[in-house]
Amino acid sequence: MTLKIIASQCTSCSACEPECPNVAISEKNGTFVIDPKKCTECIGHFDEPQCAAVCPVDNTCVIDNSFPRYQPPA
Amino acid sequence: MDASVQHEQATIPDGDKLSSVMQTIAEHKGCGTSGGSGKASCGSGAGENDLPPEIWEKVKNHPCYSEEAHHHYARMHVAVAPACNIQCNYCNRKYDCANESRPGVVSEKLTPEQAAKKVLAVASTIPQMTVLGIAGPGDPLANPEKTFKTFELIARTAPDIKLCLSTNGLALPDHVDTIAGFNVDHVTITINMVDPEIGAKIYPWVFWKHKRYTGVEAAKLLTDRQLQGLEMLTERGILCKVNSVMIPGVNDKHLVEVNRAVKSRGAFLHNIMPLISSPEHGTVFGLTGQRGPTAQELKALQDECEGEMNMMRHCRQCRADAVGLLGEDRSAEFTTDKIMAMEVNYDIDSRKAYQEAVESERVAKVVARQEELASLAGQSSDIKLLVAVATKGSGLINEHFGHAKEFQVYELSTAGAKFVGHRRVDLYCQGGYGDEDSLETVIRAINDCHAVFVAKIGGCPKSDLQAAGIEPVDQFAHEFIEKSAIAWFKSYLDKVNSGEIQHVVRGDAEIRQGALISAA
Questions:
Q1: Three-state SS for B132?
Q2: Which of A9, A12, A14, A31 is the best mutation test for B, with the most CBs of B within 10 A?
Q3: Are strands B433-434 and B429-430 parallel, antiparallel or unpaired?
Q4: What is the rounded CA–CA span in Å between residue B352 and residue B475?
């Protein structure tokens, strides 16, 4: 799995972008998006996904169930 | 600078008698009436009548740090800092309306390059614009690269503009040296508590060092960082203003303690602001029905905190992209599209010349006030009352009653005229037609005042105001506010003394919460 940003709730404040350890977040059409190929849910970096921890709107950076669970390298 | 020298000389009272009167007043009362050359702001001098010259030099044309200056000088905010690192229960980042004036709100974000262009465009159009602040819409220090890049660009292209920033303080200790390096000599920290138990009711979380903290732990972290940052700034001689939001039942009584804590750490000015909590803003406090204070509650707290520390009472709780004099917002004239199309001719000399003219106007105002005050010297009375003033700036009674978007409130006593606040009102008159409901709004907003000073007023509102017990006064049209108010107060006292009228105490007034309806 990866995280995704619910576009309709994103305030476009950009707080998440510099916090992402994988540089997976970028601005697209006025809101921010997460590149599922780069997102690791912050596993191996931090205790909690940084985008969700810093986001000012609850339930906006959420787990995207349409992707398989991220597998940290052994 | 010539202007300040002139100012000093012009305000030294002549004669021993007047000096001793001024001294007595200064010892008993603070604020604008305390005369003296360098009194920066509302607030008592408590014996220390004047500010040190180097401090006066820093605040004399900063509208947010000097009540005196806010009648004459303008500021602008550039919204380059959208990200925030804490959550406050009085803030909702999703809400933006061009007609709404309150902190944390902005219509468009700017890049540092766009911001620098905007500053030049505004400075060329509004020569009395002396201050550039970064106040969000998030926290400037949660966006350090954008904030400092903006300062760097402006310091290079418009070196005469003062730089300042307003922060929640969480990241402040990490950036104090950079702030000092950019010659930012005014920093505002919003401190709503020094007790984490109270803080937990105001801040649901803070984000620090890759972790979200909640509850008392979050508030403890925040207050420690805020006070540490404040100490670090004042050690470096950077002027600090502390903003506090007054939340009745949550921190209203506690703010006296906050005042002591920040004063002891060298804060220069304390600005206690009323909570804005309309439900339509969608903030936690708006949705839980947390009320803001009444005008009397706010003033009582400000009076209680006014000891050795200056209190700011002229804050308009402006937007993170506000432009213009406090109380006016010209941001709509300077949208990104418009500024990018503007031919900018930044002429530092003509700006300086304009500002010198402003200085002489200001000196004339102070002299007029001193003269009128001297004529009050023989009077003794316990009467203290409030009056409202319709003004467009320059310290003059120069606004039509029906056009006023706000009224400035002065407290009158034998000590003089003291600025104690302002009241936002809807435009009563739009297109020349009076509107009954708006008049009621105005009366509720200035219900604690005995009189309202205007440049002009129509017959209908005049009689309605009289019926509400508020005397409309238009005989001082286009004259200086303080001089006129003192003159009116003198005749009021004469009438009370002769038995012609009886002095009655007025009721409370409402602090307006809703959207500001822009005339533009």
A1: strand
A2: A14
A3: antiparallel
A4: 34
- C-beta atoms surrounding B395 within 10 Å: 24
Instruction: Please tell me if residue A11 touches chain B, with a CB cutoff of 8 Å.
Output: yes
Q: What is the mean pLDDT of residues B320-332?
A: 79
Q: Do B207 and A53 touch (CB under 8 A)?
A: yes
Is pTM beyond 0.90? Reply is no
Whichever domain contains B91, its CATH number is 3.20.20.70
Count of alpha carbons within 13 angstroms of residue B484, beta-carbon side: 24
Structure tokens at B472: 């409309």
Identify the band that residue B6 occupies on the pLDDT scale cut at 50, 70 and 90: very low
Is the minimum CB–CB distance between A56 and chain B shorter than 8 Å? yes
- Whether B50 is covered by a domain: the verdict is no
SS3 B243: strand
Residue B415, CA distances (Å) to B22, B186, B289, B374, B449 in order: 9, 31, 40, 10, 18
Identify whether residues B301 and B379 lie together within a single domain.
no
Task: Kindly state whether residue B258 falls inside one of the protein's structural domains.
Answer: yes
What's the half-sphere exposure (Cβ side, CA atoms, 13 Å) at B119?
31
Do B211 and B284 belong to one domain? Answer: yes
Q: pLDDT (tens digit, 9 = 90+) per residue, B211-264?
A: 999 999 999 999 999 999 999 999 999 999 999 999 999 999 999 999 999 999
> Which residues of chain A make contact with B80, given a CB cutoff of 8 A?
none
Task: Map tokens 């803030």 to a residue.
Answer: B91
Q: In B214-347, which ranges are continuous DSSP H helix?
A: 215-235, 255-264, 284-288, 295-305, 336-341
Q: Which domains does chain A have, with CATH numbers?
A: 2-64 (3.30.70.20)
A32-67 residues labelled b (16+ CB within 10 A) or e (exposed): bebeeeebbbbeeeeeebbbbbbbbbeebbbeeeee
Please list the residues that pair with B449 across neighbouring strands: B386
What ipTM describes this predicted complex? Answer: 0.91
Mutate one of B85, B86, B94, B109 to test the A interface: name it (highest A CB count within 10 A): B94
Q: What is the pLDDT of residue B65?
A: 75
